[in-house]
Amino acid sequence: MELYDKKGKPIVYIENNEDIYLFKGQPVDYLDNNEIFGFNEFHIGWFENGWIRDLDGRCVLYTKYAHGDPIKPIAKVRPIK
C-alpha cells in the first residue's frame, strides 16, 4: 500500500501490513497496532482511517483509501520498486 505526501507524491509503501519502506527498498519505520515507530523504537505517529498522523495530530501522509478530513490531493504515479 502506497503512502502519499500533501502534494500527492508517493513517498513510502507499507509491506506485510507492518514495515514501511522508501521506494528505494530501504526500511524506515514500522506499524504496531496502528502506531508508527522508527527503528530506534521511538513512537513517531499513528495510522488512522488511511492517514499517517504525526505526534501533534497533523496528517502527513495518506493512502488512496484515506477518508475523513483533510481532503486528499490527487495522487501522482508511484515510482517503480
Describe what this molecule looks like in 3D.
There is one protein chain. The protein is mainly beta. It has one domain. The protein has strands at 2-4, 10-15, 19-22, 27-32, 35-38, 43-48, 51-54, 59-62. The chain has an eight-stranded antiparallel beta sheet with strand order 1-2-3-4-5-6-7-8, with no helix packed on it. A hairpin with a 5-residue loop joins strand 1 and strand 2. The N and C termini lie close together (12 Å).
Rg measurement, Å? 12 Å
The major sheet is characterized as: 8 strands, antiparallel
C-alpha end-to-end distance: 12 Å
Oligomer: single chain
- Helical content band: under 10%
Overall pLDDT score: 89
The global form is globular
User: Number of domains in the coordinates?
Assistant: 1
Number of helices: 0
Q: In what order do the strands lie side by side in the largest sheet?
A: 1-2-3-4-5-6-7-8
How does the helix and strand content classify structurally? Answer: mainly beta
Beta strand %: over 45%
Write the H/E string, N to C.
Answer: EEEEEEEE
Number of strands: 8
Could you list the spans in which at least 5 consecutive residues all have pLDDT below 50? Answer: none
